[in-house]
Amino acid sequence: MRILGITIPEDKRLEIGLTAIFGIGRSQAKNILDKAKVDWGIKSKDLSTEKENEIRKLIEKIKVEGDLKREIAGNIKRLKDIKCYRGVRHLRLLPSRGQRTKTNSRTRRGNTRKTMGTGRRAIDKK
User: Fold this and answer.
1) CATH topology of domain 2-62
2) Spatial CB neighbours of 28, under 8 Å, sequence gap ≥ 6
3) According to its UniProt record, which protein family does this protein belong to (predicted)?
4) Which single residue of 40, 52, 117, 125 could bond 15 by disulfide (Cβ 3.0 to 4.6 Å)?
5) What is the DSSP string of the chain?
6) CATH 1.10.8.50 placement within the chain
């Protein structure tokens, strides 16, 4: 089963398989299946074509995949343009939701190799 160019896994339950689409989580997948009157536990290979088309129509009404990614990128760009606090945090590649940065946030800051042990100094070998 393919929806919006995304292949839904056939061996997983439909409730889980729909989460392969960016923008659809577990709760939204359950809501879609409830509206289409489909059992959550059924697998996509056991689905009839009428139910498959009904699910496809419901998903096309929701903003998912490329449209959603574009909207998120636009929101972040707007924050950067107006130079608000969250926008500045995005510009500097720092956490923007209030997390601490003295420790942790290694993946966001990008310095994964400069971790220090106890009482040692970080030596950068180049």
Assistant:
1) Helicase, Ruva Protein; domain 3 (1.10.8)
2) 18, 62
3) Belongs to the universal ribosomal protein uS13 family.
4) 40
5) -EETTEEPPSSSBHHHHGGGSTT--HHHHHHHHHHTT--TT-BGGG--HHHHHHHHHHHHTS--HHHHHHHHHHHHHHHHHTT-HHHHHHHTT--SSS---SSS-HHHHT--S----TT-------
6) 2-62
What are the pLDDT digits (tens) for 35-88? 999 988 888 888 888 999 999 999 999 999 999 999 999 999 999 999 999 999
pLDDT given at position 104: 82
Average pLDDT, the chain: 87
Report d(CA 103, CA 8) in Å as an integer. Answer: 39
Distance between CA atoms of residues 17 and 14, nearest Å: 5
How confident is the model at residue 113, as a pLDDT?
Answer: 67
What phi and psi values does residue 13 have, to the nearest 5 degrees? -60, 150
